[in-house]
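Morning F.,

Quick status update on the modeling queue. The single chain you submitted on Monday has been processed. Sequence for confirmation:
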Amino acid sequence: MISLAEAQEIVIGGCEPLKPVLADCRQMTGRVVAQDVVATEFIPPFANSAVDGFAVRAQDVSTAGIELNVLGVIGAGHVANYVIGAGQAARIMTGAPVPQGADAIVMIEDATVIGQTRVRCNKAAKLGEAIRNIGEDVRAGDVVFTVGSVINSAGAGVLAGINARQVLTYPRLRVAMLSTGDELVIDGAPLKPGQIRESNLTMLSAMIAATDCEVINLGIISDDESKLETVLREVALRCDAIVTSGGVGQGDFDVVKIVLSRIAQMQWMQMAIKPAKPFAFGKLTTSDSRVIPVFGLPGNPVSSMISFELLARPALRKMMGHTQNLMRPTVRAIVDKQLKRRQDGKIHLMRVFGAFEDDGRLHVRDTGPQGSHQLAATALANGLALVPDGEGLVVGSEVEVMLLGY
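Structure tokens below.
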């Protein structure tokens, strides 16, 4: 057996980022910047009002109670064709350009309108008050995002604001997913003797999509070597990675192991963890000379989920250009209910539910049965507790917990 860290080095270290491509700024949320983004425009591009109110000269409104003549109304997207002079003002809306001559804005709440063309300022104005200056947010020439930055929704807005319409980024992965087994039923039909309902395909497809990848769902492939090989070779031409479920254990001799061993360079691993001890990783060279990573997950549902989290997910993120936070975050948590296990030389990944208590610490307890086939308890978990080899952890102990969903 090898350690989890050794397996991660093999799998994550065996994957490289894809070649960067240009993408529209509206498609950048969640993606990684492949070169520095330099602003070519200012945000805002002109001085504008931060509030609804009146544009004035601060020197004219040095005290409260000053009355001014109102020259007109300036709405957002419109520019005044006059200059604010002594004793004058203009009604102005939020975001509208500050007219020439004005250097302060009196909020509408601090003003009293007198008739159609006069206003009383009930508060003294300060120079520059309520004015957003040109380039106050971003200046032309600023590096707004460096290589490796992950663009969130606000970042996409910044890209649009500086008119960075095309951004060099790492592409989203196209990940092919399949399960095999004549015993699997996917269409809701009544079960026949020996059959079970498919669950891994549904679960893993959702996990791949949540990793920000495009899922190519190949469904259930029958236990036919020739058909499986044809499917894998064909899909490899239109995907960036392949995920399979089942047939990776030491005692397994099903079609997945036979076919992958024949068409790809595979490593069949046994890790010192429970569940998810078996895992397979390899590379399939396509007919057009591309090299496609293949992640072989175990068939038991919980094992499949955990091995995806610990190995496939961080590798897929690396392929999309992520360099930071490949793994989900971990915290030291307090055990509120004994976590029982037996000594077997492995780290046990126990499904737990955690909540932050009044002491500011995360407190956890298991979510139920911990068998590798028992997915229902896993569905209630929001963390994986890494319980070291031994006889378990008593109430009040500390344990490292990987936070799922972060």
